[in-house]
Structure formats: C-alpha cells, structure tokens
Amino acid sequence: MQRALLIVDVQNDFCPGGALAVPQGDQVVPVINRLLDRFPLVLSSQDWHPAQSRHFERWPVHCVQESQGAALHPDLQADAIQVRLYKGTGQADDGYSAFEATNLDLAQTLHQAQVDHLYIVGLATDYCVKATALDAIKAGFDTTVVLDAVAAVELTPGDGINALQAMSNAGVRLTHSSAL
C-alpha cells in the first residue's frame, strides 16, 4: 500500500488577483512544492466549468475551461503531477469534491494504485478541500489535510476553522508539512 498527494484547485482564479481569490491562496504553493518528492503518486484537481453554468448563480464566473483563470498557479511544479482530475464540467455540476471528477473515477484510480492514505492540500479549506476530504473518508481512505498547505475563502469569519473541525470530527487527520 502507498500514500498519495492530492492538490486541490491551486488555480489562478483562486489565488490573489483571480476571479474568486482565496486570501493568501498563493502562499500554499511553496509548501506544496516542498512536499511533491515525498509522494510516489501526485494528483491534482481543477475546477473546469463551462462558460454557462448554474454554479455561477452562486459564485462569480471562475475557472472557465481553457481559460487562464482555470490554469494551475504558474509557480506550482505541475510537472510532478501524474494524474489530473477535472470537476464541475457540466452546466449543472458544482464539482466541489475531487471525487466528483468527470474525466476519471478518483476512488478507482487510487485503489488501482494501491493507495491507502491520501494527503490533501490546496484551495479552499472551507469548500473543495473539505468536500474532498470528507468524500475520501467515505470512500475508505486514511485521509490527512496538511494545515500549512491549505487556505480558506472565509466568506463568513470562522468558515476555515469550522471546516477543519468538521473534517477532524469525520476522522480526517490534520498535520503540518514539517511532520511529513
């Protein structure tokens, strides 16, 4: 059995200057880059919305397929990513969790690679990281969120802390990169 690193939505539109920026979202990139060589399998998820999506009734237009905003952050060492997952690809598809990817089945991919422990990093703690971590637990994976490699949107103050508490209550481990 082995472990894998899943980078959730470290995309331009979720970083400062983007359409739906996470405050200091770009600060997770150096931490993630330092972790890459510690995992035999590195995956990433990306919001990949069509130009017309029900998702944009709730959120500003962001991460439209093939746009610069949908691209991974330019400082992320993307050449280390072996598997890319695209989510939110339908007109009525929110795609918060990487387990909702439409281009492949994440749970099946992890099982085929004999992954038993999934480490999650990325954006945003209170939405896509949380949804992905909770789905990982439901799918039977030991799951750890790396605290200094995630950042929250915080639409309401405390959303990030509340998300971490919900994940911990569900069985997700929380750690810092220095412990890996």
From TrEMBL:
UniProt EC number: 3.5.1.19
Keywords: Hydrolase, Metal-binding, Pyridine nucleotide biosynthesis
Principal EC category: hydrolase
Domain Isochorismatase-like per the UniProt entry, residue ranges: 4-175
Coiled-coil intervals: none
Metabolic or biological pathway, per its Swiss-Prot or TrEMBL entry: Cofactor biosynthesis; nicotinate biosynthesis; nicotinate from nicotinamide: step 1/1
Family membership: Belongs to the isochorismatase family.
Name the UniProt record assigns to this protein: nicotinamidase
Lineage start: Bacteria, Pseudomonadati, Pseudomonadota, Gammaproteobacteria, Aeromonadales
